[in-house]
Amino acid sequence: MLTLPNIIGMILAYLVGSIPSAVWVGRTFYNIDVREYGSGNAGATNTYRVLGKKAGTAVLIMDVLKGFFAVKLAYITGDYDPKGPEFIDFELALAVCGLLGHIFPIYVGFRGGKGVATMLGILIAVHYQAAVICAGIFFLTLLVSHYVSLSSMISGIAFPVVIMVFYSSNSSINIFSLVVALLILVTHQRNIERLIRREESRVYIFGKKAEEKK
């Protein structure tokens, strides 16, 4: 039910998600708009590639936090009992609003990122056990493939599987997990094309191997 407190909460979640961490860090400390370089996305991965580890890590942390706090707005907005099933539905609605804010941020012309880091914060807030498993899948895939995009997609696809098999019988969370997987695939369409053409950039967490540097 869309009451005034619920609507206010959803608007606030969108505004929190819209905080353009990558754009603000780039413009403030480097006089660079990261959307004009690299992949053109305002996210942690592109910030890492364009501005380096320090800036990329800062953006990653901020993006995770804004996803987390967008969901937790359910405790200070809305009019649901935190112990009731409707409260979970409201959290998921806030999660969607926060994610849309990251992808289409109102503060910087609706040109945002793909939402992976923000989605991680959302998943931690919604179901931290599944989020930890998916984060492990992400880093394992990254260590093996060195593709952030591929790691994001595989961990995103794994999320509904982990939720449905191990944890939740709640239909709202199950549907939300499927939407998460689909949205990650949609936002990574260009990455899929580059992966097929073998043109996708690699990320080496611990540096390139000697033979790959030559």
Characterise the protein shown here.
Helix content is 70%, strand content 0%. Helix 2 runs antiparallel to helix 4 and helix 7 runs antiparallel to helix 8. The protein has 214 residues and is mostly helical. It starts with a helix and ends with a helix. The chain has 2 domains: 126 residues, no CATH class; 80 residues, no CATH class. The radius of gyration is 17 Å and the shape is globular.
Supply database-style keywords.
214 residues, mainly alpha, globular
Provide the number of structural domains.
Answer: 2
Cα Rg: 17 Å
> Order of helices and strands, N to C?
HHHHHHHHHHH
Helix content: over 70%
Number of strands: 0
Q: List low-pLDDT spans.
A: 209-214
Let me know the average pLDDT: 90
Number of helices: 11
Query: How far apart are the termini?
Result: 61 Å
Q: Strand content of the residues, in percent?
A: under 5%
- Structural class call reads mainly alpha
Largest sheet: none
Shape: globular
Q: How would you sum up this structure in a few lines?
A:
This protein has 214 residues and is mainly alpha-helical. The chain has helices spanning 4-17, 21-30, 44-51, 53-72, 85-103, 116-126, 128-145, 148-167, 171-187, 189-197, 210-213. It has 2 domains: 1-126, no CATH class; 127-206, no CATH class.
